[in-house]
Design goal:
132 residues; 4 helices; 6 strands; 32% helix
Length: 132
C-alpha cells in the first residue's frame, strides 16, 4: 500500500512541477482536511474538499502573478502516510517572490488524499502573501 501511495504522490508532484495542480485536487477525498499547525495567521484547519478549494486555494492563487510550481525532492512512505518535502515557487501580484519550502504529511486511504498537514515558513507566507 505505501508503494502505491508513494507513486500517487510522485505522479501528482510530477504534474505540479509543470504548474498543473489538477491531479492534486482530483486526488482529494470529499472529506479531505488540510491543516497548518502553529500560531501564525496561516495556522488553521480547512475541512472538506470544497472548503480547501474555495477558502484556501482560490484566495491563495488569486495572489499569484504567474503559475505556481512545486517541485518535490523527497518522498517517504509508510502505510497510509506519505511525507513529501518540496519547494514551491511563484511571484505574487505585488512583485514579491514566494518561494517556500514545505514538509507535507499526507494520509491516503483507498487511493484518495484524506488529510494533509503542511509545515512551512509561516513568517514568509505572512510577509509575502498577507493574512489568508
Amino acid at each position: 500500500m505505501s508503494h502505491d501511495n508513494k507513486q500517487l504522490m510522485q505522479g501528482i508532484f510530477d504534474e505540479m512541477a509543470k504548474g498543473n495542480g489538477r491531479p492534486f485536487v482530483d486526488a482529494m477525498a470529499e472529506d479531505f482536511c488540510w491543516s497548518i499547525p502553529g500560531q501564525s495567521t496561516w495556522s488553521r484547519r480547512w475541512e472538506g474538499k470544497q472548503a480547501v478549494v474555495n477558502d484556501l486555494f482560490r484566495p491563495l492563487f488569486a495572489r499569484f502573478a504567474d503559475t505556481y510550481v512545486s517541485r518535490a525532492h523527497r518522498f517517504i512512505a509508510e502505510g497510509d502516510h506519505v511525507v513529501v518535502q518540496c519547494r514551491g515557487e511563484v511571484t505574487t501580484k505585488t512583485g514579491k517572490r514566494y518561494d517556500n519550502d514545505y514538509c507535507l504529511v499526507c494520509r491516503i486511504v483507498d487511493g484518495k488524499l484524506r488529510e494533509l498537514t503542511e509545515y512551512m515558513d509561516t513568517e514568509l507566507a505572512t510577509t509575502a502573501l498577507g493574512a489568508p
